[in-house]
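Protocol step 4 of 6: record predicted structures for both targets in the notebook before any analysis. Target 1:
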Amino acid sequence: MQKLGRPWGIALCLVLLHLRSAADDPVKPAPAPADEAERAKAENTRATEANELIARAQAALSGKKWAEAAELLQPLIAADPKRWEFRQSLGGALLNLGKYDEARAAYHDGAALAQAELVTAKPGDAARQLAQQAGRMLAAEGNCFVKLGKSDEGIACFRQAAELDPDPGTAFFNLAATCYNAGRMDDALTYCNKTIAADPARADAYFIKGSVLMGNGSADKTGKITFPPGTVEALQKYLELKPDGPHAGDVKAMLDYVVSETAAKK
């Protein structure tokens, strides 16, 4: 029998420190109280300025003023380069500006910082949230790669995200959609099943699964078509979850075709 191939075209939318001993330097006197007061005042000033910048950056992000947000986040990163949250926000702003390569770099650095922090984190809710955010940044980096036309690199990022994120449904779906669009149907089906196992309510996973299974239908010498088990069920599940979804029209047409062909065979 000959496989039917891909039935429906869809695009879904991945300083070194020199240490010296105490004997190397003469003992320095303790700072005078006045010096301590000046130091505390300077620290408070820096903290106030940083908080003001953070508030302005958050307001710009909320208002979708992406260029302004990106500009405000740069000095925050320079002042506190180990804060992965700033890089995550910068990645989002740059992504919305269409600066995919710069956004990818911001997400990559943010994910690396979060993963380094995760190494020493104590097990618990905080560590779980940290792993989730690191996974999301890796998934966002993968999305940037896909937008740059680098599917293989995107798939690699999505796989890392799925391994790290305690809720890997989104990463698995990104893998399914990217593999489908790249024509890697067996992989797409595998990741659809993983998506459904992790997040049974994700309707688009059933759409891709139904599309792949429908494409795996085969015709005999008389032209009668047999579809793999689960084809109808996957398409019906999409309609159950999203009866008015963006793919509902395509799914109904696909179902009509599968049902009519199955009836003709009988």
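Target 2:
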Amino acid sequence: MKRIVLGCLLACLIMVPMAESQVFKYESRGKRDPFVPLIGQDKAAAAGLIDVTSVEDIRIEGIALRADGKRTAIINGELTKEKDKIGEVEVIKIEPKSVTLLISGKEFKVKLPEEGGPKE
């Protein structure tokens, strides 16, 4: 009986370091990592454009071409077009991959994030 218990303990001592050495790496393949919280430090502090105080609060979520040939941008969850002014943010120009904004009197060009996140 002592040999069986001793054998089990020895097996456990060998298996624990092996289990700890395995690191799980999520392969996103262009999809969102389900292990990263949707709410947290990576998200902009501003819920919409009315709360924006700096360019760090801006999140360009998409740019689309309308039927009339003009572009629309989704910024912080709000649908915007050129010349829109919401709070301290004014949309100056919407290009295919970027939006030029005027925030508190300063002009910024914010690029649309690459599909699937930044490339490494």
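Step 5 preliminary note on target 2. The longest strand covers residues 60-65. The mean pLDDT is 80.
Proceed to step 6 after PI sign-off.
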